[in-house]
Amino acid sequence: MNGLEGRVVIVTRPEGQAAELAERLRARGAEVIEAPAIRIERVPPGGRLDEAIREAARGRYAWVLFTSAAGVEAWFGRADELSVGDPEAMVAAVGAGTAEALTARGRRPDLVPPTYTTRALGEAFPDGTGEVLLARADLATAELEDTLRDKGWAPVRVEAYRTELADDLPAPATAALEEGRVDVVTFTSASTVRGFVRAVGGAPDGVVAVCIGPVTAAAARQAGLTVAAEADPHTVDGVADAVARVLGP
Question: How far apart are CA 167 and CA 199, in angstroms?
């Protein structure tokens, strides 16, 4: 017995990113329903992202900051298409998943905060001057930019990818929710919370949320969901462990 037999967990990560968490939970015996609450969309070529990639390769920026693995993939995927090299700058990653995505691309990050949140990245960032490029999602908040500005930097934000909220969930997830069979819904970003609530038409009664970190948890509570646990550390493994703590014996 692995602790989660007979339990039903919905994973709301976007398509192409859900497998790792789903596998962790299935290994513990859970029935996992993958229900993408958001879609990751590329930005059109020929725009500001392309300019930023070229500018970074020419050394315009002191730092380039990545706050998600999706941002890393969007940046380096487009750089490959443009035949542009890596940034001539220091590089920071918000957490382990983002750092791993960078390392897989052949670039080891110069800074990873001890706690895997954008707030922690801002707190860990040194004081200094010069331009700092942030390759982010369109829905990301401006908190990190404000922190960098307070430390003397000139933040420059570029939209690396777009986040589209789901209109509805796959039929298995909808049926399980309607039947009251869902024990936990996992959320790995505030946008997955917003997408889930939009898709189901509000916060379903009795749904318990497990969130990857404090920002996601705050979004879940604001949406009317009950947050049973936050991951510690703020990683996919941490989410799986948190689910096990909530539902296990």
Answer: 5
Q: What is the pTM of this model?
A: 0.86
* DSSP code at position 111: B
- What are the tens digits of pLDDT across the range 167-222? 999 999 999 999 999 999 999 999 999 999 999 999 998 889 999 999 899 999 99
Looking up tokens 């790792």, which residue turns up? 20
What is the secondary structure of 234-247 as a DSSP string?
SSHHHHHHHHHHHH
CB 10 within 8 A of CB 173: yes
The alpha carbon dihedral of 39, 53, 61, 234 has a sign of: positive
Q: Give which of 162, 148, 156, 137 is closest to 56, Cα–Cα.
A: 156
Give every residue of the chain whose pLDDT is below 70, as ranges: 1-2
Which domains are seen in the chain, by residue range?
8-37+166-247 (3.40.50.10090), 42-163 (3.40.50.10090)
Identify whether the C-beta of residue 182 lies closer than 8 Å to the C-beta of residue 10.
Answer: yes
